[in-house]
Amino acid sequence: MDFKRSAVVLIVCFFILDLFLFGLVWQKRSDVKNPLNTSINVIDQMKQDGITLPTLNATVESVPIIQVTPQSTDGKLSSLPNQVVTLDKNIINGQFVTPIQLDLSGSVSADSFADLTKIVENNQVAFGNQYTWSSYNPTTRKVVYTQKADKLTIMDGSSQIIFTINANDQVVSYEQTYAGSVQVLGKERELITAQKAVEILYLAGRISSKATVQSVKLSYYQSLVLKDFSIYSPAWYIEIRQSDGQLIARRVDAIHGTVLANETLETTNTQTQRTTTSNTTTTQSVQQQ
Question: Rg of the Cα trace of the chain?
Answer without folding.
Answer: 26
